[in-house]
Amino acid sequence: MKVIAGLGNPGNQYEHTRHNVGFKVIDHLSESLSIPLNKQKFNGLFGIGEVNGHKICLLKPLTYMNRSGDSVIALMKYYKVDIEDLLVIYDDLDLVPGKLRLREKGSAGGHNGMKSIIQHLGSQDFKRIRIGIGRPEPGEAVPDYVLKSFRPDQQGPIKEVLQRSADACECWIDKPFSQVMNRYNG
Predict the structure, then answer these.
(1) Range of 101's domain?
(2) What is the pLDDT of residues 121-136, one digit of tens each?
(3) What is the distance between the alpha carbons of residues 109 and 102, in angstroms, rounded to a whole number?
(4) What's the predicted TM-score (pTM) here?
């Protein structure tokens, strides 16, 4: 089974914030792959379905960002998912809004959700899709910035990058991640 986990914070007040782009991609995938998010367990909301003969699990950890690893590791242990079958989608301050970056492994880069997942897995060697949200203006605190909605001028690029991210996830269902990276990076 392949697990695609999108990071975010639960609750209506966070739904449209920069920090929730991972959740938004999971929502796109749920609709396009016809995999309803109808199970709540492992401190997460998830759904399991079959696409082109592959078993796919879509996961939204409901632990708040800094404890995302609690949910991811619990689901992976229960379903005996190998680390090479995990793909995590999250926001990245170092990429401009609308930019996408796929990697097969790497550090947390200061992202608390990724720190939690790396700590729980005991490894940085898992696939990820980073979605650019840009940096705050000078003087604005990062926690405040990531918990705000995108500006009106950023809505178009964000809508496009969410769709491209979902497309990249769908491509990974049938193709090696190296091919997906070649197609969607840059």
Answers:
(1) 2-184
(2) 999 999 999 999 999 9
(3) 14
(4) 0.96
